[in-house]
Amino acid sequence: MLNIFQSEHLKYRRSFSVKLVWAAPLFFVLFALVALLYLPKGQSLPGDLFLGMVFNWWPFIFVPLGTALLCALAEVRERKAGNYRGLRLHNVRPGALWFGKIMVLAYYMLLSSLGTIAAALIAGLLITDATLPVEKVVVASLLTWLVSLSLIPLQLLAAAWKGMPASIGLGVAGMFAGVIAAPGPNWLYVPWSWALRLMCPVAGVHPNGVPLESGNPLLEPSVIPVGIAVSLLFFAASSWLTGVWFARKEVK
């Protein structure tokens, strides 16, 4: 399995995917630099307000679209390299190859999440009043990554089945479905809503981007362990099921 991971990892060297992984978090630094031009001299943003902004935009826009694009690009590389014909020449189980692809994508999403932590802290130094809670930035970014792992098998399936348009289309549809479902009682049924819903108690922001007032039921932290458990179970199940589909697809 380690050899498969290393082989998949090599495919990302000098690729656009790696640039995308680091470019997405840099948006927040760029935002801070632009904001500096418009903030009145001596004024700054409250740390909690900036925290809510970052961790509303990140799980709402960047994670679903970024995951969709990374999965689509991974499939494009495979098709250019021979559309998995190498599997017929080597003793590699298709299911193991599929799981290796998922793990490498999860690894690069983790790198992007770590980049988001750094970018948010740098941006916070530039435009906030020095009250940006570092521990919340770290928890919010890593928690978003953890519960968004479940998107990888779905997006990879769409890309392998119907190509890049399907993966991007699913990502866009999921993005809007997630923000609609997140504040409601059925948020657990929509994987794209999990990160947004968990950011309510962590970052104090409504899925629509509005700061939550004290006493709002969306601030209830009990949803965090539930969301983590459901997302990891779904990730395991979807990885296995899509792996079975991929293995059968290769046999045909």
TrEMBL record:
Organism expressing this protein natively: Paenibacillus riograndensis SBR5
Residue ranges of the TM segments: 20-38, 58-76, 97-127, 139-161, 168-189, 223-247
Keyword terms, alphabetized: Membrane, Transmembrane, Transmembrane helix
Residue runs in coiled coils: none
Name of a matching Pfam family: ABC2_membrane_4
Top-rank taxon: Bacteria
Name assigned to this protein: Lantibiotic protection ABC transporter permease subunit, MutE/EpiE family
